[in-house]
Design brief:
four-stranded mixed beta sheet, single chain, 9 helices, 35% helix, alpha+beta, 205 residues, globular
Length: 205
Amino acid sequence: MYNFNQIYYVEFPCITTLILSALLFQCIRNINLANMLGTVPDDTADIKIILDAWANDKEVQKALHIREGTIGVWEKTNETIHFIFGKNDTICYSYDVSSTIVYHEQLISRNCHVLIISGDHDMIIPYLGTEKWIKSLGVPIARPWNPWFVDDQVAGYQMAYATKGYSLTYATVKGAGHSLQLNKPKEASFLVDEWLTSHTYISDF
């Protein structure tokens, strides 16, 4: 059985107090993560080493069109950046952004497409919370909840919202946790590829 206090405090100190409220902890304290599908891999340290090496490779950065000199050393997790109320912002980072909903509200009046993906086993940012703030935007539903498939198996569910030149697709990935691209790489890749090929590029930015 995992020790939620230990793991979340060490790896995610910025959101410990937000996520591990007494009520939430009471709900999840008896869950044995070993019995869950798509939990975080045991070889997290190995994955970090591999990702760091891959992302710092000059050929990879060139293929991703990252301008040379714009990034020092890429890290999977920048442990120096945390959500902290009252800390002065820098030119590059705001420390007290507790919500990005206001930015999404501004996007509604623009010509753009948005894709939001959640793992349905994500215990850090549960998909129901994401669904709730998306509904709070008040954008009409263009396509109701429907399953999407990979290899003839239900891989998750998705729905679409749209108004004027703005559209938002919200999708869940079945059995995926917070790092869904690590838990379900095939499904995550399929979902993003399908979304990209089904949208033409529009922008008024």
